[in-house]
Amino acid sequence: MRKGQYQFVTGFLFIPVALYLVFVIWPYIQTIGYSLTDWKGQSQTFSFVGLDNYVALFQDDVFLGAVWHNILFLVFIPVITILLALFFAFMVNAGGRSRAGGVAGVSGSKFYKVVYFFPQVLSLAILAVLFGAVYRSDTGGMLNGLLLKLGLIDAAEPIEWLNEPDFVLWALMAVVVWHGVGFYLVLFSAAMQSIPRDIYEAALIDGAGRAQSFFRITLPLLWDSVQTAWVYLGIVAMDMFVLVSTMTSGDYGGGPDHHSETMSTVMMRNFLYFGKSGYACAMGVVMLLLTLIVSVVTLRATRRERLEF
Amino acid sequence: MGSTSAQNHEGLGRRDLIKRSAALGLIAVPTMSFLSACASSGGDDAGKDKPKGEKTKDNPFGVAKGGKIDVVVFKGGYGDDYAKAWEASFNKKWDITATHTGTQEITGKLQPRFNAGNPPDIVDDSGAQKIKIDVLAKNGQLLDLAEVLDAPSVDDPAKKVRDTLIPGTIDAGLQEGKVVALNYIYTVWGLWYSGKLFKEKGWTEPKTWDEFMAICKEATAQGIGGLAHQGKYPYYINVAIMDLIAKKGGLDAMKAIDNLDPKAFVGSAAAKEAVEAVYELVEKGYLMAGTNGLTHTESQTRWNQYKAAFITCGSWLENEQLKQTPADFDMKFMPMPLLPGSAMPYEAIRAGSGEPFIIPSKAKNLAEAKEFMRMMLSKEWSTLFAKEANSLTILADGVDPSVKLRPGTQSTVVASKAAGTNTFRYLYTEWYSEMDTEIQNASNELMAKRIQPAEWLKRAQAAVDKAAKDPASKKNHRD
């Protein structure tokens, strides 16, 4: 390389790195700084309080409850979404009764793929409105209307779906899963199609059934995609802000009575509504750490020997 | 590849120059804003080199002609046409150009500006995304409005501005003993019903809680709900609970709550009876079915469809529901019915003001902002508001008789005349956001039958006690 080219390359590397430092790293550093103060969020006057915010954080029942809810999301959202997506993807790609080797999708599989992908094109805000109508607490809601028609509920006592402490988390989870399955179905389908058909055919000749070919062939060869999906869904589960804050009761959501609280909703309420911005920054730092830990653990725990084909 | 000037190595090529300056610019811009955001000093250069007008009786703040003003208003139920009409009038009188921003995202747009010491000159800080007044006040971001309130009134220079207002309406803007927000719209809170429905059913406005319960019972028996409330926002049912407490126990019961009395709820007979009365509605099934989970528009619309006899709300209800209200609905306001042995008469209402206008203490055009606010409290501007936003202002007799009011607003005028001086207004909602939120949560649980009145009282008291422990709370007190 000539001298000028070095300069040229450095010039182009410099900009993205600088942008990254300014727009990603610097805000994080600022947040950590603010988390050690009693900043109230509306002016630049504050004083240093050391680790007080963090101490308070671990005695804050609402925040600890929110952490617990995020953990529940973290356990259930990826598992349910991935299992459903894998099942549907396998059915679409290899579930059909084809005469030619038994490795074709069910009939109309192309159509299903498009239909399944539909929810993904909707933004979360639209989703919140849509499911707001599904879960509406009087008989004007879709679910309640249906149950009423079936004679399962009394018109005077409809189910207040999002106002039931035991149910609200699951109601929210159903929305996320509904939203995500289609996308991961398409992702897994793409991965499945790249698996050579002769492997399946060989398995078929050896007498493998559908379940066996799934667990022995498809899943191991799909592992990379599953791992990616897991990390992404883990991040979704750590956030959940848009859905919770728009669909549930309370300022920035979290209701009824903190039963659907997530870390992000507690943080926003403290940051903007209560004027405890320094405290909220401490929550932000904890969220960052937890998300990092989750990503690392997921990547480690799901590490497998890479299969080549 | 073609050769360009960048490839000769003598000095800086054209491409290099562009590249480097672009990189510099990219970094420099955000860095500058960070630096300016972090600079917490030097905010006092407001209006230093600006021409000043002479201070006279007609120009108490010394506004100079040809200046500027930066106005931000919440564009919600009242729209922002009224503000545009004001700005046009302001320009006509003072030749001052206004920068107008009508938005729903007050926090998103203004928080960075407050932090950077560069706030607008006057703000209507309202709506779901308002910046809480107590938070702004604690940060020293709000101008003490005493100067405006003590200035001569536009309509009658012999009077001070504060003497032209409906009594008690400026209390809502009190923070730490100073009026820092001007709540401009006159609002009453209570129960609402349809005059048409009541005529059809032969019901009359209930004056006692027993009569109220009787109507709820009859309505429920006929498949109409008794009381509807905006369950997703428990703020509204708190209007009913708190009004009952104030009317039963008198102003002292109300002030005990605002002043964070250790016996505000637990140990207060008025509070106990009030909460038990509201809970009786739940127990007997007199709530509109499903109302606990509905948003304000959903429940109010159901009420407009005659699915419930009553609903709790403030006087913005009529304007908010304009499109959903049937033409012959005949919307009517009524005070909260009385529990036996109440300290206040039936006519007593929660009345006061909403829609807080603030002047940031670091505003660049302070004189203009103060003059703008003084003019808001003139008959001319108050009438402009009533015309554009369909609502009353806190200026006494502030609406020109030529403006025709809608039935609901008209009924609030009648009710507030009947109430006279028997009005009350809670301030804890403006003083202690966290306490307010916790009491709302408890009310949500109560209405869903998950806790009993005794537990509600305990939780509300716990919220009060927690607020009392906050060192900042010592500065708020009312007599």
Total strands of chain B: the figure is 11
Biggest beta sheet attributes of chain A? none
Question: How helix-rich are the residues of chain B, as a percent range?
Answer: 40-55%
CATH class (first level) name of chain A: Mainly Alpha
Counting structural domains of chain A, the number is 1
Low-pLDDT residue intervals, each spanning 5 or more residues of chain B: 1-15, 17-48
What average pLDDT do the residues of chain A reach? 87
The number of helices of chain A is 13
The CATH architecture of chain A would be Orthogonal Bundle
What's the β-strand tally of chain A?
A: 0
- In helices, the fraction of residues of chain A equals 55-70%
CATH topology of chain A: MetI-like fold
CATH superfamily of the largest domain in chain B: Periplasmic binding protein-like II
**N→C terminal distance of chain B:** 84 Å
CATH class designation of the largest domain in chain B? Alpha Beta
Cα(first) to Cα(last) distance of chain A is 37 Å
Family (chain B): Belongs to the bacterial solute-binding protein 1 family.
Subcellular location (chain B): Cell envelope
Protein name (chain B): Sugar ABC transporter substrate-binding protein
Region (Disordered) (chain B): 40-61
